[in-house]
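User: Batch of two.

Assistant: Item 1 of 2:
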Amino acid sequence: MSRKSVAFVAAMCLVFAVPMAALAAPKPKVTICHIPPGNPGNAHTITVGGKAADSHIANHGDTLGPCGEERNQPPKADAGDDVCVLFGDQVVLDGSESSDPEGEPLTYQWAVIKSPNGSSATLGDPTAESTAFNPDRLGDYVIELEVDDGELSDTDKVRVGVTMEVTLDFQVYIVAAGESEPATVTLTGPAPAGGAEVHITLLPAPDEDEEPAAASVALTENGEPVDSIVIAEGDDSADFFIIGEAPGTVTLTARIGSDFCNRDVTAEVVIADSLIEAIKVHIDEDLERLAADLERLLNLGLSQDPEFESSGLWTALGDALISLGILIDEIIDVLANR
């Protein structure tokens, strides 16, 4: 090999030797302040490779250099406790328990992020520490609070449930098997926009010795069995039927609202074997009420006239009441055997 060729080969080796050495050398480690996702308060110093550092900074919000005592910590948002209110009540959302570790002043931003279908409810001042909220429909709302210290922010959510008071009205509480009796669901006020749905459930009496009872609930418009009654917007009541299907006692529950926020009322309904038996139960109940009223009346007479008891009126009224009960029972027995 000529001297010129040797020189050329040596030069080429030098050209490639430097890049190859650079490629072989490990990349320097980088110290960063790592902010764990979902736990920004637990920031800590770590040392990683250059590529890993780039990924941390881009994806986690990490910063170059070690974590220092002067490093800004994120604030803590607190939107308050979940609340359940009656329709028409104003809700005050309070974010005053939000805080910043360094005591920096916070800015506030409230937003309704979930609401019942058709709702257009808004917040009084969405940038205030505390703000008013007026729900416009029944159901559940979710409101988010974001607080910001000028560099970092945090969010918290509060749930607001809205319901109404409900009552049950019956013409009679005794239903003969195979017969139906009207009942009414009533709200404390007119149903808001979108109406109100009242869920109806029927549970057998807890007494295991009683024969299992059953009943169905039907809307008056079509008589079909349903498990809820819809009260139209602006109305305060709706009618339905209790249809006796088997003898026994059931507990009827009318509930309005969600699992989180609701109001309900219960009432017992007796399903008798027959119409005659139902009438007899009604009469027995009426006689019991009459006897209680007479007892109060007689006690009043005794308190005002010491000679009232010796007049014989007490005994006469008691005997008359017993005779009336016996007579009614005999009439019912005759009708039942015809």
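Item 2 of 2:
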Amino acid sequence: MKTTLDIPERELAEAVKNTHAKSKAEAVRVALRELNQRRRLADVAARLKGALPGFMSQADLKVLREDVKWESAR
């Protein structure tokens, strides 16, 4: 679908750079796709709210990281 938009040049240039797009149109498509994906992931995370028992807690991850550091220091 063709649409005419007034996008600030700096914002568009930054989007092209950050998306590694070959064109301005591609940069806009990538940005919209990523925005929509992030919104969907945020919605899923909000619905789950810690509803996944068995996943590691922050404390479990910290212990695991410290164990790895200890093993690599030997």
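The helical segments are 9-19, 24-48, 58-73.
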